[in-house]
Amino acid sequence: MNGTLSYYTKKFLAITAAVLVAMSAQAADPIRIGSFLSVTGPASFLGDPELKTLEMYVEKINEEGGVLGRQLELIHYDDAGNASKARNFASRLIRSDRVDIIVGGSTTGATMAAVPLIEQAQIPFISLAGATVITTPVKKWVFKTPQSDRMAAERILSDMESRGLTKIGLISGTGGFGSSGREQTIAVAREMGNIEVVADETYGVSDTDMTAQLTNIRGTDDVQTILNFGFGQGPAIVTRNYAQLGIDLPFYQSHGVASDSFLELAGDSAEGLRLPASPLLVPDSLPDSDPQKAVVQAYKSEYEARWDSKVSTFGGYAYDGLRLAVKAIETAGSTDKAAVREALENIQGHVGVTGTFNMSPDDHNGLTAESFRILEVKDGSWTLVD
């Protein structure tokens, strides 16, 4: 009898030990954060600071003990702004790398190319691109950190209205971001009622001179202000052409160029223009009572110290994406994808670099137009207007 008990006891202990070893090994597995970004190519001004931000804060989080007692592992690919590559890399992250969550997608085109795969695989995805279509209508597994182009249009047109500017000349890029921004600007103007788009011009991704389009706008009767909706090299060219033509009208750009890199490209031609942006570009101008001040100051100082380069709002999108992912995993208490998705969808009052996020089943962005600050270029630097 004693021998029998001894045998089963030993068997039980052996099995228990094996289970504990397996559980321990599983607990030690890293939490895999997947990403595809436009680190090179025409959208590298987006992807480069995004990747640097993810690398820096994954390292920092790991040094502080990780998440749920596990280290983070960043697995990333460079899609070079190519939507087909983005789709392929998203597939690799899901099927081969078996990541727990994806934080990436520098451009709208790359993001939307990956969305069908992500929805099918049922994996949480936080996009770093801004177009309204990414989260409107709501897609169960898709979230994003930038404000939408519609919010940018709302903020710009409201500022124009406050200055008595109601007749707009619109020029926009023909890429995904510019086209969506154009559509949203026209729609918002129509809804406001007292704002009218009286001129509507576009330019291609490879265009190197927009003088003809700007000349057409300047020649339009009653035009009071001009808005350029685009990103990349195009807006800098528009800005320089604008100055070369001596156009004496208030000039606006979109949030697609909210970075010091744009000021370097546009030079003195940017003087006086306005755009909507996160407060990251003017953190010291915020009052001490602003809950974002400490967050943006910390991110700006840490990024610039680490990389010896100017911070940009695009890196801020990545900071917010990673922090939201970590918060959701901690709330879920695991990397179970359904639990993490549900936690993401219910994040409230999360103060980030871009704004304060209040997610819901009906809103997978969680920001409002008011999270944008209106900035103006004065003496070659960004200044806070509103």
Total strands: the figure is 14
SS class = alpha/beta
Strand order of the largest sheet: 2-1-3-4-5
Query: So, the CATH homologous superfamily of the largest domain?
Result: Response regulator
Q: Approximately what portion of the residues adopt beta-strand conformation?
A: 15-25%
Look at the structure and give the CATH class of the largest domain. Alpha Beta
Shape category: globular
Tell me the quaternary state. single chain
Q: Which key terms come to mind for this protein?
A:
about 375 residues; alpha/beta; Rossmann fold; 2 domains; five-stranded parallel β-sheet; four-stranded parallel β-sheet; 12 helices; 14 strands; about 45% helix; Leu_Ile_Val-bd; signal; transport; BCAA_transport
Tell me what you see in this structure.
The structure is a single chain. With 386 residues, the chain is α/β, with parallel strands linked by helices. It folds into two domains: 28-148 and 292-368, Response regulator (Rossmann fold, 3-Layer(aba) Sandwich), CATH 3.40.50; 150-285 and 372-384, Rossmann fold. The chain has helices spanning 2-28, 44-63, 83-95, 108-121, 149-162, 176-192, 211-218, 233-244, 260-266, 293-307, 313-332, 337-345; strands at 31-37, 72-78, 101-104, 125-127, 142-144, 167-173, 196-203, 225-229, 251-253, 274-277, 350-351, 356-357, 373-378, 381-384. A five-stranded parallel β-sheet has the order 2-1-3-4-5, sandwiched between helices. A four-stranded parallel β-sheet has the order 7-6-8-9. Strands 10-13-14 form a three-stranded antiparallel β-sheet. Strand 3 (101-104), helix 4 (108-121) and strand 4 form a beta-alpha-beta unit. Helix 5 (149-162) packs across helix 6 (176-192) and helix 11 (313-332) packs across helix 12. It is globular, with a radius of gyration of 24 Å.
